[in-house]
Amino acid sequence: MECSCGGVIIEGKSCYSVSTEQFYFVLEDVPAYQCTRCGKVLFGEDVAEKIQKLVRKIERDSSEIITGKPSVHSYDY
Ligand SMILES: [Zn+2]
After folding, report:
1. pTM
2. How many angstroms is it from 30 CA to the middle of ligand 1?
């Protein structure tokens, strides 16, 4: 396996983070590959797929929270 820069890619662990308006999500110790030359981090296809599924699930769940109407308004007090 070789990076597009021509560097050698080694297997290791990395962390993956996603930040949107609704949430900030970090996964640590994700199996990943890193280029020893440019430092670019690559994820295996299966790992990337699992992360995407997880992110979509969180997005869906968090949008349910955001769109839910609060039963008590702060200005009622
Ligand atoms: Zn590289």
Report:
1. 0.67
2. 19
